[in-house]
Amino acid sequence: MTQQPLVKISDLHVLFKGQKNVCAVNGLSLNLLPGQVLGILGESGSGKSVTLKALLRLLPAHKTEIRGLIEVLGRNVMSLNAADLASFRGGIASMIFQDPMLALDPVYTIGDQIAEVVTRHHGLKRRDAMAYALDMLKKVRIPSPERRLKAYPHEISGGMRQRAMIALALAGNPKLLLADEPTTALDASVQMQILLLLRELQKESGMGMIFVTHDIGVAVEICDVVAVMYAGQIVETGTIRDIVKDPKHPYTKGLLAANLHGAERGKRLETIPGSPPLLESAPTSCSFAPRCAYTQAVCRLKAPEAVTISKNITVRCILETNMNS
Amino acid sequence: MSEDTSTRRTHMADAPLLEVREITKFFPIKSGLFGRATNSVRAVDGISFNVLRRETLGIVGESGCGKSTTARLIVDLISPDKGDILFDARRLGTDLTLNELRRNVQMVFQDSYASLNPRLTIEDTIAFGPIIHGVPREYARRLAWELLSKVGLDPKRFAGRYPHEISGGQRQRVNIARALAVKPQIIILDESVSALDKSVEAQVLNLLLDLKKELDLTYIFISHDLNVVKFMADRVIVMYLGEIVEVGPVESIYAETAHPYSRSLLASMPSMDPDHRSEHVALAGDPPNPIIPPSGCRFHPRCPIAIPKCKTEKPLLHIQKTRGHLAACHLTAQQQETF
Amino acid sequence: MIEQKTIPLDEYTRSPSYWAIVLRRFSRDKVAMFALAIIILLFLVAVFAPYIAPADPLKGSMLRRLRPIGTPGLPLGADELGRDMLSRLIYGARLSLFMGITPVAIAFVIGSSIGIAAGYLGGLFNSLTMRTNDIFYAFPSVLLAIALSGALGAGVTSGLLSLTIVFIPPIARVAESVTTQVRKLDYVEAAKASGANNFTIIRVHVLGNVLGPIFVYSTSLISVSMILAAGLSFLGLGVKPPEPEWGLMLNTLRNAIYVQPWLAALPGVMIFMTSIAFNLVSDGLRSAMDIKS
Question: What ipTM does the predicted assembly reach?
Answer without folding.
Answer: 0.86
